């Protein structure tokens, strides 16, 4: 026996109720979006690993002075110990985020990590011009957040299975409700 859902979604934002009905292909497209954005960041991370040693200090030190984070990034670039950490964290997290999104595992956590990285790249590249507001890295950040918002890991992803793992006879998601913010 199968049950059919109505593909409705909605919420309330600023006192306005938003309601919609998804097309039957919406699930397919959110899986494709998850895989594509996951592949994009995976290959960015692999590229950095293959060109080892990766060094972010040149980027950080040369951010446009009009950028709101230019001082912070220049300070970061001047700290050798911090740069050693950044030079490992950036490529490793990009690979992990990409693998997680492609597999559909810990999608919300991975997508949040991707959105944070893209926002940091966006701020580093933004020199304050209005038209530059719609830079591709900002759009990527929104795509990561969209994947998280739709719980894309539950559609042809491992999150659907991880949530049902029993811990002490209770599904993981019920035993540890905070896991809802990491999975999905």
Automatic annotation (TrEMBL):
<feature type="transmembrane region" description="Helical">
    <location>
        <begin position="138"/>
        <end position="156"/>
    </location>
</feature>
<dbReference type="GO" id="GO:0016020">
    <property type="term" value="C:membrane"/>
</dbReference>
<keyword id="KW-0472">Membrane</keyword>
<dbReference type="InterPro" id="IPR032808">
    <property type="entry name" value="DoxX"/>
</dbReference>
<keyword id="KW-1133">Transmembrane helix</keyword>
<feature type="transmembrane region" description="Helical">
    <location>
        <begin position="95"/>
        <end position="118"/>
    </location>
</feature>
<feature type="transmembrane region" description="Helical">
    <location>
        <begin position="27"/>
        <end position="50"/>
    </location>
</feature>
<keyword id="KW-0812">Transmembrane</keyword>
<dbReference type="Pfam" id="PF07681">
    <property type="entry name" value="DoxX"/>
</dbReference>
<protein>
    <submittedName>
        <fullName>DoxX family protein</fullName>
    </submittedName>
</protein>
<feature type="transmembrane region" description="Helical">
    <location>
        <begin position="70"/>
        <end position="90"/>
    </location>
</feature>
């Amino acid at each position: 026996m199968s049950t059919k859902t109505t593909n409705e979604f909605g919420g309330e934002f600023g006192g306005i109720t938003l309601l919609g009905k998804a097309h039957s292909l919406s699930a397919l497209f959110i899986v494709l979006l998850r895989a594509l954005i996951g592949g994009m960041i995976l290959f960015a991370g692999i590229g950095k690993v293959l060109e080892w040693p990766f060094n972010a200090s040149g980027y950080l030190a040369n951010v446009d002075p009009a950028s709101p984070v230019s001082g912070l990034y220049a300070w970061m670039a001047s700290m050798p110990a911090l740069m050693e950490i950044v030079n490992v964290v950036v490529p490793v997290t990009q690979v992990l985020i990409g693998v997680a999104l492609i597999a559909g595992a810990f999608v919300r956590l991975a997508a949040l990590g991707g959105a944070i990285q893209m926002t940091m790249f966006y701020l580093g590249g933004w020199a304050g011009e209005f038209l530059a507001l719609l830079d591709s890295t900002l759009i990527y950040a929104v795509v990561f957040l969209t994947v998280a918002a739709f719980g894309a890991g539950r559609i042809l992803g491992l999150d659907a299975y991880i949530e049902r793992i029993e811990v002490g006879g209770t599904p993981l998601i019920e035993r540890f409700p905070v896991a809802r913010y990491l999975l999905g």
